[in-house]
Amino acid sequence: MSPDIALLHAINGLAGQFPAFDTLMIALTQFGVPLMVLAVVPLWWARSQRDRARHLAASAGLAFLGGLALNQLIVQRPRPYTEGLSHLLIAPSADPSFPSDHATAVTAIAATFLLQRRLRAGGTFALVALLVMISRVYVGTHYPSDILGGMATGCLAALVIRGFYTREGWLNRRLVRLL
């Protein structure tokens, strides 16, 4: 048995045994990404260091979207429950398993904050991201390697945005003037 499948069984094997923990993991998998996005959005209306806050919010949004776009170009595979390898706790998904869009999204946000040296917020986002990613394996919808693939695309997107989307650039100057 591959390490990927062994780890899937170790994590997903707990599913269905502890109803309260199942509820927590389902909530993390369903609401983790939207809650992280909602935590970034208020930066747009920050009163102190407005340009910096808007640049950070826009950077996180661009990394989020860029990572998800990158995922569409990657070779994809079936989900573990379609192969009979996991116990599914949520509704099945129609899209492929690799890489995990959830892992990409939460990693892109956390990595953006960490790259911008917003360590407290970035650390909090990284912790929530880790919980969301574990929940995806726990509920049976992803292999652990799907999560690693999503982390890679999320980090890559955050790095690309960090390199090309600067506070002094023309795109940022136009975006921070909106609203």
Automatic annotation (TrEMBL):
The keyword Kinase does not apply. It holds the Pfam family PAP2. SUPFAM superfamilies: Acid phosphatase/Vanadium-dependent haloperoxidase. Keywords: Cell membrane, Hydrolase, Membrane, Transmembrane, Transmembrane helix. It is found in: Cell membrane. The keyword Transmembrane applies. The chain crosses the membrane at residues 24-44, 56-76, 122-141, 147-165. It is a multi-pass membrane protein. It catalyses: di-trans,octa-cis-undecaprenyl diphosphate + H2O = di-trans,octa-cis-undecaprenyl phosphate + phosphate + H(+). Its main location: membrane. Its EC number is 3.6.1.27. Residues 57-162 form the Phosphatidic acid phosphatase type 2/haloperoxidase domain. This is undecaprenyl-diphosphate phosphatase. It comes from Modicisalibacter zincidurans.
